[in-house]
Write a structure and sequence with these properties.
Blueprint (H helix, E strand, L loop, with lengths): L2 H10 L1 H10 L7 H8 L11 E7 L5 E9 L9 H11 L3 E7 L9 H16 L3 E8 L3 E3 L5 H15 L1
Parallel strand pairs: 3-4
Antiparallel strand pairs: 1-2, 1-3, 4-5
């Protein structure tokens, strides 16, 4: 396959089902691995924000990779209740959340951090692990690698002690 054909296949979304099938049952160990799995999925419709999830079992083995939300060039509405609903359907024990920034800049916005925290609150209430929130652009930003996920978990833990 030549580069042109590969790029056309990538942009068409042809590889989405291949990624889903080949990743099922594999263990996920790092943000780099999650990025490598997810990056090709954002090639299709790269001008809009999309939110993908890697749902895992208790051994961090991938159950499925799915897109739950789509938006516009600058935002995507995310509803934690829909994430909870899908987790219950799949009997998932943990997940990684990822979305793209069509601008190419993977730096998290205030809104990105806010939805991460709101989602974490929902997941904590049902004892589901929230491993990371990746933002994918020309490169990627991992909220777990940067300590944001741990900081949010600690804030939530401290709040729960006070209640």
């Amino acid at each position: 396959m030549n580069r042109e054909q590969f790029w056309d296949d990538l942009k068409s979304g042809k590889f989405i089902s291949m990624v889903r099938e080949s990743s099922r049952g594999k263990s996920l160990c790092s943000s780099v691995e999650a990025y490598n799995i997810l990056k090709p999925l954002f090639a299709d419709e790269d001008d809009i924000e999309k939110m993908f999830f890697i749902f895992m079992n208790q051994r961090n083995e991938i159950l499925t990779v799915e897109s739950l939300f789509k938006g516009s060039i600058a935002m995507s509405a995310v509803y934690p209740r829909e994430i909870v609903k899908r987790i219950i359907q799949l009997k998932a024990n943990a997940f990684v959340m990822a979305h793209n920034h069509p601008s190419g800049n993977p730096s998290p916005s205030i809104e990105d951090k806010a939805i991460t925290f709101r989602t974490m609150i929902a997941m904590t209430s049902i004892d589901v692990g929230f491993h990371d929130h990746l933002i994918i652009g020309d490169s990627f930003f991992s909220m777990a690698d940067e300590g944001i996920i741990l900081s949010m978990k600690n804030r939530l833990r401290n709040f729960m002690k006070e209640v």
